[in-house]
Design goal:
The longest helix is centred in the first third of the chain and has 12 residues. This protein has seven helices and 16 strands. The protein is an alpha+beta fold. The N and C termini lie far apart (91 Å). The strands form three sheets. It has an eight-stranded antiparallel β-sheet with strand order 4-5-12-11-13-3-2-14. It has a five-stranded antiparallel β-sheet with strand order 6-10-9-8-7, with no helix packed on it. The protein has a domain of 205 residues: Cyclophilin-like (Cyclophilin, Beta Barrel), CATH 2.40.100.
Length: 316
């Protein structure tokens, strides 16, 4: 009787042969998400767009060229003023005024910053000395918006609009550019209309999002960031150079459309309104690379790369 009872107990504890086979069957293998490199290699020509020569600035420094794409959709008044300044060669011979570690690199007219009567600031010519602040604009239907799936600390929604990182607030109907690495803004004084674009800066450190909607962002550096982020840090307050001899001189700034086609660069940026860009975002949200042991599954708007490439010869 005891032996029979023990057999019943063991039978209840041990799985049947069928269930053993089922549990031994290999689990279905999920295909890892493609890496960013794989996404870009699989991209189509239509996933890329060429830079508009009328919205592209070339800033030549002794170390190399910095290419800036303006964003007239979000800062039309500033873009127009910057074109005028470039037409007039305003920045030629001016300087990098300030490099503050982890924050910004800023350039403009040293005489205007010093306010020294012996060295009057450079004439603005036909450019405007004041511009209405363009810190935000109405999120009208004509502005494309590719949202990110994750939340944001500074705004109800964040995403991309024609290749630029943006935020928006559905309740107020406002949208604005955000201070990510490489974004370019127009420095200003305390008055909101005091930043006409004569002094520009780019973010070289962690995204200072507290500046969003407090200053006009006008575009972003698409190539040559190393020439602005690798400069010696200023030794004065806020990274200004105490000794003018330490300033890096600007050789020239030109609008691409002012140069003959043979002297223009042939750059393309990845469109942010395509399935390819959506796949790129996912490749960065949840890394499939073998090195990553912990998969975050989230991404910040300033942590999404915005690829730039030399246009294929056939597409020029």
């Amino acid at each position: 009787m005891k032996l029979r009872l023990m057999s019943v107990v063991l039978a209840a504890l041990l799985p049947c042969a069928g269930s053993t086979q089922a549990s031994a069957a290999p689990a279905a293998q999920t295909k890892p998400a493609p890496t960013m490199d794989q996404v870009l290699k699989a991209s189509k020509p239509s996933d890329w767009r060429a830079l508009d020569p009328n919205d592209t600035l070339y800033m030549d420094l002794p170390e190399g060229r910095v290419v800036i794409e303006l964003d007239p959709a979000y800062a039309p008044l500033h873009a127009a003023n910057l074109r005028t300044l470039a037409h007039q060669h305003y920045w030629d011979g001016l300087a990098i005024l300030r490099v503050q570690d982890g924050f910004v690199t800023q350039w403009g007219d040293p005489a205007a910053e010093a306010e020294h009567p012996a060295h009057p600031p450079r004439s603005l010519g036909k450019a405007k000395a004041t511009i209405a602040p363009e810190f935000e604009r109405d999120s009208a239907a004509d502005l494309p918006f590719t949202p990110l799936p994750d939340g944001d600390v500074y705004a109800p929604e964040v995403g991309f609009s024609d290749g630029f990182p943006v935020a928006r607030d559905p309740k107020t109907g406002k949208t604005w550019l955000v201070h990510c690495y490489g974004m370019v803004g127009a420095g200003r004084d305390n008055t909101p209309d005091s930043g006409p674009g004569t002094e520009l800066y780019t973010v070289i450190g962690q995204a200072p999002r507290q500046l969003d909607r407090n200053i006009a962002l006008v575009g972003r550096v698409v190539q040559g960031m190393q020439y602005l982020s690798d400069l010696p840090r200023g030794n004065g307050p806020m990274g200004f150079y105490k000794n003018p001899a330490h300033q890096t001189k600007i050789e020239r700034v030109r609008l691409a459309s002012d140069l003959p086609p043979s002297e223009r660069m042939h750059l393309e940026v990845l469109r942010t309104d395509t399935p390819t860009f959506a796949a790129l975002v996912e490749s960065r949200r949840d890394r499939s690379d073998a090195w990553y042991l912990y998969k975050v599954g989230k991404i910040d708007v300033c942590n999404v790369p915005l690829p730039v490439r030399e246009a294929p010869a056939a597409g020029r």
